[in-house]
Amino acid sequence: MSFSSLGLSDAIVRAVTEHGYTVPTPIQTQAIPAVLAGGDLLAGAQTGTGKTAGFTLPVLHRLSTDANGAAITSNSSTRPIRALILAPTRELAAQVEESVRAYSKYTKLNSTVIFGGVGINPQIKQLKHGVDILVATPGRLLDHMGQGTVDLSKVEILILDEADRMLDMGFIRDIKKVLAVLPPKRQNLLFSATFSEEIKALADGLLNKPAMIEVARRNSTVEVIKQKIHPVDRDKKHPMLSYLIKSNNWTQVLVFTRTKHGANKLVEQLGADGIGALAIHGNKSQSARTRALSEFKDGTLQVLVATDIAARGIDIDQLPHVVNYDLPNIPEDYVHRIGRTGRAGAKGEAVSLVCVDEHEMLKDIEKLIKQTLPREVIEGFEPDLNARAQPVQLRSGTGGHRNNSRAPAGAVVRVKTGGGGAKPRSAGPSGGGGGGGNRSGNAPRSAASHRSGGRGR
Ligand code: AMP
Q1: What is the pTM of this model?
Q2: How far does residue 449's CA lie from ligand 1's centre (Å)?
Q3: How far is CA 195 from the centre of its chain?
Q4: Is the CB of residue 390 less than 8 Å from the CB of residue 233?
Q5: Which end of the chain, C or N, has fewer beta carbons within 10 A?
Q6: Distance 365 CA to ligand 1 centre (A)
Q7: Is the domain covering 225-415 a CATH 2.40.50.140 domain?
Q8: To test ligand 1's pocket by mutation, which of 96, 343, 347 has the most ligand atoms within 8 angstroms of CB?
């Protein structure tokens, strides 16, 4: 199977081939002909499956060729927006647009991306200039709609990417406002990793007799990813991570923490150990996030520490190492996290540093992925078998479950130091480290401010 045999134009096949891809992934094999046929599509696919090219390539083909498949050469100076791609986060939007740009290289089409956290004026200028394909986060798109700086009246194709995450992040009303200004006759593509009742309701209202495709959930494709659990005491996580990075000579490591505070603290600790690290999370400015991501991608930054929302959609080819410094309290996030490695068949390694507080979370994860992960105790970091579990600090603004994602900040539990039955430590009462601690005086943020941090506004 090749891209040209799927019916894509030479210009697009050439750009994909230059990108290094010759064999379509399963989602591409199914989505490309379906989108080329012109109907609506409901696709179940996660990041890592090649879904972006799965919708980008046929959309580019449809916009750049006429009904006979010949290239459209006229280049009108008044270019209306013909395709709109909505994505939940700034990072994902930027990456999708990067793909659109790469794959449209040999067509006359142009694209731009708009998201919050950066100045609106350059975006207004871009939009005025004329754009064929617009990639946007919903919040910023609404800002432009409010200011009358974007015209969506000529959109022919709408793509909702990671629709489930957009709903999780509370974007449903924004999406509906966008839908209301689009021309009724258009092609709609909805991509989602999961199919909740909410997604089904959205799909029912949006899609007209859609083709339906679903590729294997990542849970079932993780065989290429070597997974390991390192049991460890909560206050030994940081020295263990430094040890692992140094002794294994890891040069490009993506580390997940549960909280923004934990991410910042770990960056400082690694820095003190001589390991270059930066954090990305919702409280970081867009420029800081972009810089960290690009340095990490080009290999100049050794460690990128991320929270789940910020990392959503990060696309780095063949990332060799993912570390769960804290286990996620939402089991599905484990699958998303480790999916950053072992992409498109490449081998990867995902290790989780698990302390006694996280045993229940580990159980939930193993239940979801239907496997028991191998445990490997590292010499010198043997956990105290008598240690008792303490409450863990969940990421601010969320409860322990997806359906409770608007739990008040009161869901944040401060880890007690030294108490709770944990083994007395000779190093003094500085327990509660390992990313689980929350310094007194560091007041929990409100749920609303946390959510806006990771959103596209
Ligand atoms: P996505 O699911 O769109 O985030 O893509 C996951 C990763 O797979 C990205 O790094 C893509 O560049 C890569 N990829 C996309 N299509 C292919 C392909 N046909 N062969 C190999 N890798 C691909």
Answers
A1: 0.60
A2: 33
A3: 17
A4: no
A5: N
A6: 25
A7: no
A8: 343
